[in-house]
Amino acid sequence: MPCERSTSAAVLAAVVHPDLAVATSLALAAAALHTAWNLLIKTAEDRDLAAWGQFVFGGVALAPVVIWTGLPDAAAVPFLAASAVVHVFYVRALVAAYDHGDFSLAYPLARGGGALTAAVLGVIALGDGLGLGGWLALAVVTVGLASLVRPGAPRSEVVYALATAALIGTYTVIDAAGSRHTSNGFAYGVVLTFVTGATLTVVGVGRGRGPAFVASVRTGWARHLVSGICLATAYSLVLVAVRYGSVGYVATLRESSVVLGAALGWLLLNERLGRRRLVSALIVTVGLIALVQSQM
Predict the structure, then answer these.
(1) Residue 285: what pLDDT?
(2) 221: which of 39, 51, 59, 165 lies 20 to 30 Å off by Cα?
(3) Contacts of residue 280, Cβ cutoff 8 Å, sequence gap at least 6
(4) In the chain, domain spans
(5) Are 23 and 250 within 8 A, CB to CB?
(6) Residue 229: partners with Cβ closer than 8 Å, 6 or more residues away
(7) What is the Cα gyration radius of the chain?
(8) What is the pTM for the complete model shown?
(9) Which positions of the chain have pLDDT values less than 50?
(10) SS3 296
(11) Can you give the pLDDT at residue 15?
(12) Do 110 and 165 touch, CB atoms closer than 8 A?
């Protein structure tokens, strides 16, 4: 089974390459948390409010961790600012993707496509190396993603998911570079969540959503808190992981969550093509496993 092979690869990595084992474990934990908070957005009545609340509550909830560990180094500030701007567009694209498409399509396509984008940009901008085996593995991932899209699928379903993927890849590379300019990658992730929440608040108030924000805090604070902690923790773990492995490796392994996302769309949300998309997501997973093995 793919999951069993992935686990075996992680165990072997722990023996042979300790740094890679750390990156693998953190990325897989982040994948599970990431699926959880995305599902909470998809199932929310107002997805825009749900996304806003996650960043705000996640940043505030984990702020004490930063007080204990210390702030990111000053050299990381430009990357934090740039990433916060990209995240505003990312949130808008993500909400639109879930408004127009099934979770079992939008989530795997956006996350898997984001991994591909991050891998390519990581090589171009950061000098990360994947090797021939890594690129062949990413080719398998691409085939799996393409098989997610059924003939005649509404254009909006695919366009918003791919736009989300492009933005995911962009902010992943920015943040990977930022985390390498600070000694505290976890704090970077928490501060980024807080800054993104503040930026989304300013933008939302400008759009006239201020009263809705206030009402959402009163009635939906528990949901925002749980999903926000999942969000902030998941991404902070990724930013620690990229200190031990390449951006392409970590970002792609994190996207093993596409299988869980496809399965949840089929089993919990009763999406019509969920079973077929689960098969496509498993093809993506095969590529992910091949990537893991190519880096060992």
Answers:
(1) 76
(2) 165
(3) 108, 144, 145, 147, 148, 262
(4) 2-294
(5) yes
(6) 57, 58, 61, 62
(7) 18
(8) 0.81
(9) 2-4, 6-7, 10-16
(10) coil
(11) 44
(12) yes
